[in-house]
Amino acid sequence: MCTSSPPPRQTDSNKKRKISEDDDDDIPTPEITQMDHVALTTHSDAFGVDPLPISWGHPDPLVRGPVICTVRHSAQRNAIGAHSGSYCIYTGLAVAAGKLNPDFVPNFKLTTPVFKVGPHPSWNDPKKIASIDPFGHIVTHAYSKYLDKGFDIRPTIAVTKAHIDLPECREAIAAGRLVPDGKILLEGGQSICSKAAIEPVWYLPEVARRFGCTEAVLRQSIFRMTNGMYPELITRPDIKIFLPPIGGLTIYIWGDPDTIPDEDIELTCRVHDECNGSDVFGSDICTCRPYLTHAIEECIKTAQKGGCGIVIYFRKEGRSLGEVTKYLVYNTRKRQEGGDSAANYFNCTEKVAGVQDTRFQALMPDPLHWLGVTKIHNFISMSDMKYNAIVSTGIKIENRIEIPQELVPADAQVEITAKVFHGYNAGEAYKGIDENELNATKGRDYAYDGKEESPVVPASP
Ligand SMILES: [Zn+2]
């Protein structure tokens, strides 16, 4: 299917106008797309006829080339998709509602990072970074010549700082596990951290390699399973960058980020996949929030010893199957014959979704490499999938820190028992879970009899 060749180069057309003619450097002149013209990207002269070259993995950002994925340069675009992940649809709504001028070009003055990240050797290795743009936070510096010339280039990473206030940190202070130092942890329980928000930027050849398929198969699968949302995946095999409409990730750092690449300085890390029900609302069916807040506590302790703690929060709700699928699975778990059980924990997801898990972890280590991580002293996770994914990219992991047993909610025993039986590593407290224990671990029943009732359907008028 991926056999169509790129359309012929187009020098100029009535749809575009050049805004600068001076040619005293290597920076091309931007061609600005007129917003009153709607062109289908499947038409041969409408999309990426003159894409700016990208040399993914090159250490010099100017040679690597800027990722052009804004609507103003349709001819010079070198990426499929749109900025801001799934939020790109809201931009469309804002324009439709007359609230946003489609010609708006952002002013990035004062938006640059508040602490330095990189460059690191890993930035030049596609096997280490292929799902984020390592220069995504320094666009305004690295590509200032492009911006000066009138290119609309967007940062895909923002780097800032925060004070965060969690009740669990206050409880840890009260219990004597955490001690305020007035610097990293304040008397009131607030901790001080640095953070970065990152949106995905995929280099398709390497993403395909990590998923063990050809690039053509990857492109066809995404095209097919999104009902053809991105025809350029098929029509433009020469365009290798894709900004997918999925959630990104957030990095929280306690301590001095400069210490992260130093293998002799302690580094504590958790990579956490979003679970809104537990993380935000405290649902007791899983261990997600307890794991997250336990990790934050360990990160603060490491930072207080002069090291660094990192939590990376991935928007991969419900094992990347989404919250609707997740709740459907909850109902299946609770209503099945014999009630919620560790023995059937994974089967239920597979019955509803056709697959146990779509998080995979092949792209997960990329933000660690972006930060320059080469060794993690304390890894806070029970997932061997995460552990193996990180170690296979060359990062060393010294210790695996288990979740204290008292932090596991009663109804989450089903989850943790099932996971440990299937090879997850939850440490000493959960060692030796056998089939008897698996079969004996049951969750709370629903308040009603557990039978599927007829849903309330509105009557016809
Ligand atoms: Zn959860």
From TrEMBL:
Residues 1-31 are annotated as: Disordered. It comes from the Eukaryota. Residues 261-401 form the GTP cyclohydrolase II domain. Residues 37-224 form the GTP cyclohydrolase N-terminal domain. Pfam families: GTP_CH_N, GTP_cyclohydro2. InterPro entries: GTP_CH_N (IPR022163), GTP_cyclohydro_II (IPR032677), RibA-like_sf (IPR036144). This is GTP cyclohydrolase II. It comes from Chaetoceros tenuissimus.
